[in-house]
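To whoever is covering the structure queue this week,

Two jobs came back overnight. Logging them here so there's a record in the thread.

Job A:
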Amino acid sequence: MKDSTPEYHFEKEEKSFELKQFISNYLRYWPWFLASLIVCLVCSYLYIRYTPKVYTSMAKIKMLDAQDGAALPDLNMLIGQSKVNLANEIEIIKSYLILEKVVVDLKLTSVFYEEGRVQTSEIDTLPFFYEQIKFYERNQGGSSFEVEVTNEGFEVYNVASETTTLFTDYDTYKIAHELPFQLRAENEQLLEAAKGKQFKIHIKSIKAAVLDIKNSLIIGSIGKRSELLYLSKSGQSAARSERILNGVIRIFNEDGMRDRQLMSERTLDFIEDRFIFLAQELDSIEVGKRDFKQDNNLIYLEADSQISLGNKTQTDEEVFRLENQLALSGLLESALSDKGSKRGLLPANIGLDNTSVNTLIVQYNTAILERDKFISSGGLNNPMVQQLESTINGLRSNLDSSLDSYKAQLQLSIQQLSSRNARFSSEVRQLPEKEKLLRAINRQQQIKESLYLLLLQKREEAAISLAITEPSLKVVEYALSGSTPISPKTKNLYIMAFVLGIGLPFGVLYLIFLLDTKLHGKADIVKIVPTIPVVGEIPHIKDGKNTVFSTPNDRSVLAESFRIFSSNVKFLLPPKEEGKGAVIFTTSSIKGEGKTFISLNLSLALSSLNKKVLLIGADLRNPQLHTYLKTDKDKAGLSNYLHDPEFHWKDSLINGFAEHPGHQVLISGQIPPNPPHLLTNGRFETLLEEARLEYDYIVVDTAPTISVTDTLLISSLAD
């Protein structure tokens, strides 16, 4: 456990160091991050600045049930559920019939735009009078026009025909034209503000306008148990969206009220038809009664006849009531059998005392209204229409049966009362036959008068119901638009721009680092092979700067790094024999890695310590040492010595640096055809042994180890 503790701390420190190095690798490129962030933020600003703003408008309504005021609480009300089918109401609101009325009423077939310097924005109305005089059919396409307000008048450009027409005095009524609209300036102040501006007018068919609203209109329920609906629409012009939403609410409310008025109107029509018939019958009875009294000199009834006729009168009253009911049943049966009523409404609440018949009439009228609504929104083939037709036929059949049963019951009761009346007739035998006829006339007159008064009362009730028809909805909140646009979303775009501005260079750098296989510093070597000692770190020197340690007293970063490097090299060297110098080989894996640069500067750094140093160019295949000495590449050197036994290496030494008197260079010489044979013929070893006796350090610039085997053949000669 004790041994593992230091190792654990060492690992934690190493990880911390790697994290710091990771962060520092990216912080070196902070200008990239800053530039990327600025570009992304500027692009976001320009996008937000020049993208048309889209606003959302919303309205709220509450659906009202037709029987809210009179109906008793039912199960739905007790459990808190709405009696209104909101799904059906939503489909009716979005139906083509309703939206077509909105388009026509609000004149939405024309859409207006104002052109800016960069963007074109939709507006609700033009700053001058506009009237569309030509409308397109359903299958016709739209047309576009551009209107420029100049000092001379309106310049109207037809996009389709590519023609321009000038209307002076800002009035198109004064000039004959074929444009589908008229323009006229009516407000001088608005006209002055509009001068120099351009407006676009796009005219489309009613069908296209309806479909545009249908696609952009969103309707939903506030909650599962709520009777509230919200209507939402998005667009560049908040005023236009609000106008459309308020128009949809108004038209839908008027349509619902119209449906509720149909029953009252049908009742009024039925009563008006019957008034003419009853008036004729009453007039005929009254004329007959007058003629009967004149012919029979009847003016007063005998007082004693009242007692005799008491029982008969009571029976007559009952017969009168039953005959009244029978007459009403006949009238209703006549209305039901009328061909025009087979698809219309029946009169309700006309005075029948049969609850079953009255209930069936209400159900029948309700089914008729629902069927008409679904026909208008879905057509005759709608499954709901077929189902309601079946329901209506069943109700009609039930109503016929109920009326027949009720009439049979009335006739049976009348027959029973007639038999009783026959018994009472014996009590009035002495009454003149004429009196009996007069009473019959009076009875018929009373029946017709009471029926006339009843229908008059029902007509007033229907007229009142028609006049005070309740609305089908309640406006909870008229259309309101938000102050902030829903698109483009400024905050989100800036956040995205910030993330992209940071993430883009980070991702690029991450890929560069991930694909980078080069060694950039000591940390890369230690990370891969921690057991190999790093002798020194030489900074990268840009091209064009001094790359040679030519002055012993140089205080540059390069000079100091080579001083440290030379000190570490001396530390690594094994103890040497007295009077002999050390041999140092410099090599690399491939060419171009700076091997000659290191060899030269290392030898100069050792020479600056007042040491005798010999630099040998042993790269016989691709020598580069002569470029630093500015000497001829083919000058005699090491290759000449190795090849010619008579050639002495000291004859080709070069003193390339005046401020380093103890520094001498033996370049590689002419490039031989067989470098390995020359390096292994024994003369190179003799050269090193002779140089050890005269120099403190011998630095050998060898060939790359991966490219050729030259260095490996002589590697045993290095200290």
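Job B:
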Amino acid sequence: CRARPFLRGYFYALATAVRTLETAWVFFCGSSMKYDVVIIGAGLAGLSLSRQLLLNTDKSILLVEKRAHVPSPRQKVGESLVQVAGYYYGKVLELEEYLFRQHYMKYNLRFYWKSPGRENEGFEDYCQSYIRTFSNIPCYQLDRNTLEAELLRLNRLDSRFTFCAPATNLDVVLQEKAPHTLHCDTEDGRLSIEADWVVDTSGRSKVLARKLDLEQDNAINHGSTFLWVEGLVDIDKLSALSSRERRMNPNRAATGHLPTWLATNHFMGEGFWFWVIPLQGLTSLGLVYDPDLVPREEVATPQKLIDWVCKQFPLFERDLPGRKILDHGSYKSFSYGCARTIHPSGWALSGESGRFADPLYSPGSDFIALHNTMIIDAITTADPDDLPAKCQLYEQSMRAYYESLIPTFSTSYDALGDQECFVLKYTWELSVYFGFFVFPFINDLLTDRRFGAAFLSRFSRLGQLNRNLQTFISDYYQWKKKNGSALVGPRFHDFTDLGPLRTAESTFYRVGLSFEEARDVLDEQLVSLQELGRYIAAYVDSVVLDDEDLLCNRSHVERIDLQDLTFDPEKLKASAEHGTNQAPYTWSFDPSVLRHLNHPGAADASDPELTVQPVAPEEN
């Protein structure tokens, strides 16, 4: 037993020596090295893809990286995980124990707004929206540098994995049929490499996208400035209240007692959000903004950003000015598309080398998980005749996922500035995410071609509805901004108070389903989402006309056309005046749970003693 660590070290050193001798032989003799898969870029996407291949296939892998040091000595942004990525890193890549030991478990995404009529100098002044319980699928706050170092260490334990860095002057020659050829300069000289598959995970270097002229613009134009400070920024303590006063604050009845600093905390405003993410020994801080609403020159440097944030959200004046800044970075514009990300001739793109939308809901690692899983299935396809159909399905699926997010960030970013509008927006988007992103992934359905066709046919039905809702919510926000609000003091809202989100979250517990069962779950989710869309429209109508009864007026609710949904108060008023059918419309959930977000005297719906019981669904 005592000899085992020594033997592991011995065989690792032996494998490393063999790879070094092989490289030297290639350099002196001029022959080509042959690998099953060459991966370009040793960031999170490439290192994750390597581990997934090593765990699930017998493929030989060469990972080439232009940097001399992996991970980078600079701190890396993109730390927050949501459910797809949490499941991927924990379960698929078998890193659960490591993640729990070395990284914080994440307490969901939480959102904050300044309260009208308050100085907002203490955390207790802010309106809050959240999910009070931890997710059944653990998520984490990642120190990217630490995780990448661990992934590289684990990969190098396998003799099928070769790591080459620094590799410069890379030239990729793709053929219509494998093998493909790569040439690069290393410390040992110029190498020639052949591979059946080439996967670009080079991030924003976008090696293949630029070589193949695949780069595309999209409708999102947002910038970001970010930094890391020493120590933990505990937002719960940004207050003049004593420790006991914070603990005994009656608001705890709504918000709960779990540490708020464990969440990815978002401080919201019109067209922008500021994140606070805890890491071991440091805190990640960053602003994402629409430059039409937040001038870039006001937030372009770390000090300018801190000054701006302290002015926007005065509670941070208690902490941030005295913090030591460890590192920083910025993007003038970070969002882009890609014409294609996988091809049956044997090349693919994963991570930020392909497409990137917006970091608001932490989708970066989700897309790594989705892409890598489909790419590995393509790589391991035994029958070459099956590959074109698979690649076509995977390309359609990844484009559908990406394009579903574009209206979320390009159309209704202004609505981030209002708690009620954002609750409508996020409840819809999170319900779609749980049912159509998370559920298929945790059931290993992404590579089931029958399910893929069924998924696309159903997911596409949400496209126009999603675009209409994003515009509708944005228009409602602008109407509210123009007409003002009588609300005062902080409001608290748990997103799961709305029944359709609970219905979507219940899919986390439906695992190991057959194709037919999974297809039925998608149909159930589609019906639930359509009801939620109709509810959002009816709810907004009831607020605009100041008529609570309209929310459950059958005549009005059934006239709502989700495929032709527009926000038009004058048309709405005329339509409501002509409504003659006063029969009640029965929702499958309690329709009154948002009342506290728009009525000045309404009680908080999160108070268990004041929550209205759900209305029983009407029988068919």
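Note for Job B: The mean pLDDT is 92.

Please reply-all if you pick these up so we don't duplicate work.
Q.
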